[in-house]
Each structure stands twice: as structure tokens, then as C-alpha cells.
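User: Round two. Same drill as before: sequence, then structure, for each protein.

Assistant: Same drill it is. First protein:
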Amino acid sequence: MLDGTGLKLVVSDIDGCLSVDKGIPFDPSAMAALREHQDRAREGIGLPITLCSGRGQPYMEAIGQFLGVTEPMICEAGSMLFDPRDDSVTLNPLINDDHLEAMRELRDKLRRSFNGRNIRFEVGKEICLSINPFPFPMGSEELENAVAGLLQETMDLADGKLFNVTRSSCSVDVTPKGVDKASGIAMLSERIGVSPEDMVGIGDSYNDLSFLKAVGASACPENGVQLIKDLVKYVSPERHILGVLDIIAHYS
């Protein structure tokens, strides 16, 4: 086991880490075990966990409430910080009115371009655009090819000077330039007074790359993509949430 001295907080992605992926039920016993860990962490036993995801604030609030998360959560791939302690939402300070207008224009442009195709724009988000090709089985070669193709199409349509375009295992995410999960980590650090060097990051896919580089310790479950496995300091032998539980134990 690595020395966890100085580490104060675990920051975990959701899809591919806590869950198998979008639309697939959570493992109830493993989620209960993670909640039990959170209860112990509040008593000073082990590292508390918070969340960092491309998901929207309402979804993350619900997951966080189930798990007993009390620290701020990074939502919409770094676009905002939700703090359950005072029920506040803070936009990333890098976002201004020009960014918001550019995102609206890009959303309309992408909708026109993808009209009539089996492509879904994820609802419930205020800033980040998440675009999903469907229907494809999770983890299938067909889904991988569809996401890779959609990523290239989106990059061709989005001005690289204005937008970040990244991907996960099942979607393409677009945020204003400079806004990513790493900038979300900076917001979290400032809010709670914990250095990124004292955080453990857990991610599994390409859009986790920036925040895993920003933290002091990084890890992924066994199902992580090879790019992430090559980057992180610890790769769990377990998949998904069982991997998250193993990583927490590893660094505790």
C-alpha cells in the first residue's frame, strides 16, 4: 500500500466508476458499502469522498445525498460547483456571458447538423453539452466507433479557440474553452481549502485526464481506458465501484 500521509479527500467520477455506465443500475450493496465508508469518514476514519462528473447538478445532488457526500461536487465537467452544505451552485469563474452565447449558438448548430440521426443531447444541463449516439450496447465496439466518429464531427463543427471537446465511453462533452474537470478541481480546492496535491482522483475515461493530472494521487478501476491506466499511480484490479472501494482502501 502506498503511503497516504497528507491525503485528505477522494474525488471520484460517476459513470464508469460508481456505475457501470449510463442507464445501467448501480450495485446496491457496493453503494451501501461506500455510504458506510462515508459515515466512518465523517468520524475521522478514512478519507471522505466527493464527486466530479459531466453529469448535471440535480443528478449529482441525488447521488451525493444517497452517499452522504458533504463536500462540494464538481458538475458538468467543471462548469459549476454544487455545495450541499448551503445548497449553492457556483459557476466556473472562467465562464462569462460571451461563453454562454457561444455555447447556445453551438448547440443550435450541432442540432441542425445532427438532425434526423440517432443522436441525443442530454437534458438537464445549464452549460456543458453532452451528446450521445444511440442505441448501442455499453462497452461494444459499435458504441466506441460511434463515439469516436461523433467526437471528430463535433470537433470539426466547434471552434477550438472557443470550446473544449472531450469524450467519455458513451458521449461527447463540450464546454467553454478552459473549462474542464481540472478547473473544477481548482474551484473545489479554493472552496474547501484543500490543496489538489492532497486529493485522490478516480476516473476511467478520456474526459477524466485533466483532473487526474491535477491531483496529488490518481487511480482508476480495472475497466479504465488504457490512456488513463498509463497515467495514474494506481490501477485497481477491481472494476467500477468495487474498484473505487479498493482504491479508497489502498490510499487509506
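Second protein:
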Amino acid sequence: VDECADETENCHAQATCTNTDGSFICDCHGGYHGDGVNCTDVDECADGTHNCHAQATCTNTDGSFTCDCTEGYSGNGITCTDVDECADGTDNCHAQATCTNTDGSFTCVCSEGYIGNGVTCTNVDECADGTHNCHAQATCTNTDGSFTCDCTEGYSGNGITCTDIDECANGTHNCHDDATCSNTDGGFNCTCYEGYTGDGVTCTGIKCTFPYRLSPV
């Protein structure tokens, strides 16, 4: 009698019946274990017999399992490759931040001149917080991500180094021809010569008046 063919066997639904001479054998399907009459699902995820990638999540199913790559990786779950979010533009770094790919993720670091967590970056006002390197005789102007230094009037240089301009020596003063030019730190003074009056820029000669007396006739 072929018990398998006439379905008089008592094999489990998840078992294969094999007819033998005068009897039959029940063997649990792959993914199940037992004596064939009783078959229980094998949890490959729990017992470590799965072949999921180290960067994949194993999920047990009835008689089998599935593998899904974890976030930051792509593949079929058996093979998982790191996703370069920086290269493919799926990162959320700020426009003024540098994206660096890491294994399974990425980092965002604000560019120089900006402060924040890399996802949000705010311009640093170096002029206001005193982190600029402008000269004491220069004006600091904040810019987007940086700053500029400009020597104040009466000084020359690149703003980081400023040197006093000697207007008297280089002839850029506006003292009168009848005045003395004296250089000062960042400027100059004009002083009218003796015998002249004025502010040094304008000098006028002092007229002499002579007292006289009429002699008697």
C-alpha cells in the first residue's frame, strides 16, 4: 500500500512523505525540524543558521527567514554595501558644512566661519565676538563666513598690519605754505609760522601798525 499516494499517512503538513516497502517515512521540510509527524518552524535568526549580512536584520518567517540591510547600507540582505550619502546627495548637511561618509552613516561639520551641528550652520560674526585678527587701527567688517580688515584713515596696510602715514613727509597734508606740518599718530597738525595767524590750513600775515605822533610846528 502506498500510504503517501492514498494519503493514509500521518505526516505533518510541513513534511514530505516517502513510501517504503510496507510503510512510509516522514521528513520535515527545510526550515522545520521534528520527526516528520510533528514539525516545528526553525528560527534561523535566533539560532544563527541564517546567512544574513552583518549589517542586515534577520526576520524569521514560517519555514524560512528574510534579510534586510540596515539603514545606511544597500543590497539584498545577504550582501550589504555602505551607502555614501555624501556622494549621492542624500545627506542633510547644511550648505555651509562638509559631509564626511562613515560606515553606515555620515557626519556634518560646519565650514570655517560658521558654527552649529553641521545640519544647521550659522555665520560667526568675528568682528562682534573679537575672534578677528584686524589691527587696532583697522575696521573689521563681518562677511558671510569670514570678515575683512581695512586700515582706518591715516594708516596704510592690509588691515592686519597698519602703519601710520606720515602726511608731512609724503606731501599729502593740506597745511598752508606759511605753516609747519607736524605728523601725529594717524593724522597731522598744521601750525602757522610766527607772524601769521590762522588754523594752519589757512594762514594770513599779521599787519604791523606803527604808532605816530604829530610834531608841533
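The mean pLDDT is 95.

User: Perfect.
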